[in-house]
Amino acid sequence: MIKSSPLLFSFIFSLTLVSAQVAIPVGGPPAPETTSATDPLGRNTPSGTVLGFLEAAQDGNYRAAADYLQMSPVRRQSQGIELATKLKLLMDRAFVGNVRRISTRPEGSLEDGDASSQTVGSFSVNGVPEVPVVLVRANNPNGGKVWQFSSDTLTRVPELYDNLQVHQIETRLPQGLVSRTLLGMPLWQWLGLLILIPFAAIAGWIIVMIVAIPRRLWLKFRHKPDLKTYRHASMPLLLFFGAIAHRVMTSFLGLPLLSRVYYYRVTGVLIAFGFFWLAFRLTGIVMRRLRAHAIAAGRTGTGTLMVLGDRLLAAVVIAIAVLSILSILGFNLTTVLAGLGIGGLAIAFAAQKTLENLFGGVSVLADEVIRVGDFCRFGDRVGTVEDISLRSTRIRTLDRSELSIPNGSLATMNVENFTRRDKILFNPNLAIRYETTPDQLRYLLAEVRRMLYEHPKVETDSARVRLAGLDPNALTLEIFSYVVTADYTEFTAIREDLLLRIFEIVERAGTKFAPQAPVVYLGKQAERDEELIQAAERQVNEWRQQRNLPFPDFAPADKGRFRGAIAYPSPESAVGGSPRT
Fold first, then answer.
1. Is 28 left (phi over 0), alpha (psi -120 to 50) or beta?
2. In this predicted model, what pLDDT tens digit does every residue of 3-30 receive, in sequence order?
3. What is the dihedral of CA 516, 520, 523, 525, to 10 degrees?
4. Is the four-CA dihedral 280, 283, 289, 294 of positive or negative sign?
5. Is domain 424-517+530-562 classified as CATH 3.40.50.1980?
6. How far is CA 210 from the centre of its chain?
7. Distance CA 424, CA 527 (A)
8. 354-420 fold
9. CA distance 59 to 373
10. For residue 165, which phi and psi values (nearest 5 degrees)?
11. pTM score, two decimals?
């Protein structure tokens, strides 16, 4: 980038100088003309007079430049060219002031309080007190009023010109470099601009190295490798400090005033570009680090919000950069901002849904309702969150299709996040046949309850099994318990284990599950297993005799003893079961 910068700089500078001949005045576009006639020389405003004079003189048309001076027609005919020549040289070498701040209004600057005169700067020459440069508003013979360099200022021009020192450099250069000009500037000053570019780049690089020293020392103290941040920030800093260094060095060349104005535009654009380029990169680095810290801390939603914040900050930086560069180039930002305000209102009305989705996405990410990777229910659809963007959230459904939900709708939707579960409900209802005796039923309830207490993956405190109803076709037993896992795949395995154990308990109790549909017995009723029935009834009678009947529940001491008595996975399992000792 450094090797190509001289060509790039000279190209931009030349293009600016050429385009400036028809460009908008430095102080911004002139205000709408309120006088009765528009002056063809552009003298309707103070800025137009100063720039018009400089452009005419720079083109060598001193006769036209004399029309910008407050003189009688007779004096203009005899002395106008000479005074315009001397005034141009004074403006180039002795003018002190900011040309960009010269008023672009026909009535001049309101700060001066005098609508007939305007002080735009001063002349500073060695050995002579500063002389103010004053413009006056005079009647135009062709109609209306125009601004001209005042006669009081012109009377001091010869004296100031006589005390003006010649460039010391010009006395030591070939006459061809001094006398020949390109775009109104001597060739030796063009060569000076180009020669100073590598020196400015070296100065900028040295400043960048000095700025990086504290950071490197800090990294060395923290025993961390050199930053990737420095590599990202070095080029913007080099452009920023290099452009400043070049401007400082160029101040010794004494560029002509008009060329200096355009040069300041170019370097101002480069400085602004370097600054906002640096801001753009630093905001991206900071937001990425904050996102990494948030994700490392488990705040995935905040991390995703950082991505959105990064994009918004980048857009803000770019918008401010564009406005700043437009201001440097001389555009009137009042008009630009007014246009942006009206355009913003129109966009806001036309893009209500888009803005709704944008703010919906911000609210979803800020509240961390869902995160990428969460398994959720959205209305009547279930799926895994794959991406949360500015406009919508993409869901991968169970049938592997992609569902896109606008963030505005998502913000008002009831979302059930299965990933946030700390445990999963196990709540089957058992339908037992009516042929079951009361003691068989008591045995069944007690054994199922005991099995839940003993199982290591079931939460003991909340587990319960109750006779819930005497339905027309079956005795209904309700099981309510929580399986201690958040992994649904693991839950399905545990649920299968629990249901198999319940099935075995029902078989041991000598009863059967009732069919779901009504049963019409056309023949002899199936034989009951009397031995199992008697065994279940004997066990219940034994509990009664020992005054240890587990109804309405087991004793607290028994529940504590039951906890973890079941081996899960079972010793016969192929996935890690081990026999209990």
1. left
2. 444 444 444 444 444 444 333 344 444 4
3. 50
4. negative
5. no
6. 30
7. 39
8. SH3 type barrels. (2.30.30)
9. 69
10. -85, 145
11. 0.56
